[in-house]
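Hi C.,

You asked whether I'd gotten around to modeling the 45-residue construct. I have! Everything is below, sequence then structure, no commentary in between.
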Amino acid sequence: MDFGFSTFEVEIMVSSEQEIPEEEERIMDFAKRFGILGTPARGKL
């Protein structure tokens, strides 16, 4: 049965907190390129 819900998760390791904004942008660029945009959701419960 398909409930119409799908999840996509990406993780990138960084060496310092200063790298986080740039890596977040890389994740969003990747998602846009592959049409994986959606509504942000809470993490794993």
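If it helps when you're writing up: The two ends are 22 Å apart (CA to CA).

Thanks,
B.
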